[in-house]
Amino acid sequence: MTATATAHALDVTQANFDSEVMQASMQQPVLIDFWAGWCAPCKQLKPILEKLASEYNGAFRLARIDSDQEMALAGMFGIRSLPTVVLIKDGQPVDGFMGAQPESGVRKFLDDHGIKPALGAPAAAEAEAAPAQPLESPGAALARLQAAVAAQPDQDELRLDLAVAQMRVGQAEAAAATLDSLPANLASDARARRLRGELDFAQALASAPALDELERRIAADPKDYAARDLRAVRRLLGGAEAAALEDWLALLAEARGWNDGQAKQRLVAAFALSDDAELVAQARRRMSSLLF
Q1: How does strand 61-66 pair with strand 9-11?
Q2: pLDDT of 152-174, one tens digit each?
Q3: 87, 200, 203, 286: most buried, per Cβ within 10 A?
Q4: Measuring CA to CA, which residue among 224, 280, 286 is closest to residue 252?
Q5: Which of 39, 141, 236, 272 is catalytic?
Q6: Active-site annotation holds for 153
Q7: Measured between alpha carbons, how far is 46 from 111 in angstroms, rounded to an integer?
Q8: What is the four-CA torsion angle of 206, 210, 215, 220, rounded to 10 degrees?
Q9: Long-range contacts made by residues 221-228, C-beta under 8 angstroms, separation at least 24?
Q10: 9, 12, 42, 88: which one is catalytic?
Q11: DSSP code at position 62
Q12: Cα gap 266→268, rounded to integer Å
């Protein structure tokens, strides 16, 4: 590990967990990497996390926890598989992922939470120096990616890009089929999770009654959780994102176990779709307070 990475990454134990993770997260996001020496995927993910910690230059802190040595900490977070990465903000766990991810997936995860390379970081300087590229139309992107996948059928990341492009042009069934064909490590990529959420919401919307009908059902029976869920779906896809999140948070508070925890699932999917980092951060904190 380089000296630069050392400035933004450290090993954490029970003794320094509170100061180096919980208290530190009040000032900057902390990414916890739960790993073990016997875990091969952990060894794949470790250099990626350390590289990004260095590149992001203090935009987040990387805390490495050896789960075999720190079983109490692993138990506190309910760690069941390795590697597991947990994001802590303002003293609260807000999101995470399991399994080795490609660098692009980790970057997307950080970006989804508003974590950008700090000013002065090498990547930021390169981005500022790079000339602006013309925007590619959704149709052109689809054609380009179809040709790329045909030429390189074993490149799984290209197929994920293709699934996203298919969704952008309205080919939902094709996008779902491409997404289903991905290997497990890419199926849990941040982009794949976002696309899966888009597909699930689109499917729910296709069978949802009109908004005024849902409002009548809810007025007649406030415990009509299905109507409340579908109202939130309509609000989310209709642009009323804050109202949709409020609906699912209220449903989570009142009926956490309804439909196998669907309110939590909807919230996580909605977070992946959102571009409003502050709104998502607030909702994540409230969701965490309801779950932990």
Answers
A1: parallel
A2: 988 888 888 898 888 888 888 99
A3: 87
A4: 286
A5: 39
A6: no
A7: 19
A8: -90
A9: 223/255, 225/251, 225/255, 225/258, 225/259, 226/259
A10: 42
A11: E
A12: 6
Token pair recorded at residue 129: 């120096």
Known catalytic membership, residue 243: no
Round to the nearest angstrom and report the end-to-end CA distance of the chain: 35
Amino acid at position 156, single letter: D
The HSE-up count of residue 243 (CA atoms within 13 Å, CB side) is 12
Q: What are phi and psi of 260, to 5 degrees?
A: 60, 40
Q: How much helix, strand and coil, in percent to the nearest 5, is found in the chain?
A: 60, 10, 30
Q: Kindly state the average pLDDT of the residues 21-45.
A: 90
* Residue of 67, 116, 86 lying closest to 21 (CA atoms): 86
Predicted TM-score (pTM) of the model is 0.50
Tokens of 189: 């990529």
pLDDT band at 127 (very low <50, low <70, confident <90, very high): very low
Contact 273, 200 (CB under 8 A): no
The residue among 3 and 31 whose pLDDT is bigger is 31
Average per-residue pLDDT for the chain: 86
Confidence class of residue 233 from pLDDT cuts 50, 70 and 90? very high
Q: Under the phi-then-psi rule, with left for phi > 0, alpha for psi from -120 to 50, and beta for the rest, what region is 114?
A: left
| Separation CA 227–CA 219 (nearest Å) | 10
